[in-house]
From TrEMBL:
<keyword id="KW-0812">Transmembrane</keyword>
<keyword id="KW-1133">Transmembrane helix</keyword>
<keyword id="KW-0472">Membrane</keyword>
<protein>
    <submittedName>
        <fullName>ATP synthase 8</fullName>
    </submittedName>
</protein>
<keyword id="KW-0496">Mitochondrion</keyword>
<feature type="transmembrane region" description="Helical">
    <location>
        <begin position="16"/>
        <end position="35"/>
    </location>
</feature>
């Protein structure tokens, strides 16, 4: 297998590395914080609804007892 010099390597794989790091930057600093923020709000809303439902169930059970 012939030896590859640096310019040949960068010519073949430079764009691939650049695209990989751009996608990694986009994922880590733009997409992931949005997903975490949405997940936090959904979790907060779900726990509030769950607590309200559990209080209603407790009231109904207490009335029947």
């Amino acid at each position: 297998m012939p030896q590859l010099n640096t310019t040949m390597f960068l010519n073949q794989y430079g764009c691939t590395f650049f695209l990989f790091f751009v996608l990694l930057f986009f994922f880590l600093f733009i997409l992931l914080p949005q997903v975490k923020k949405n997940f936090f709000f959904r979790k907060k809303i779900n726990t509030k609804d769950f607590l309200k439902e559990s209080l209603l169930i407790k009231k109904v059970v207490f009335i029947w007892l």
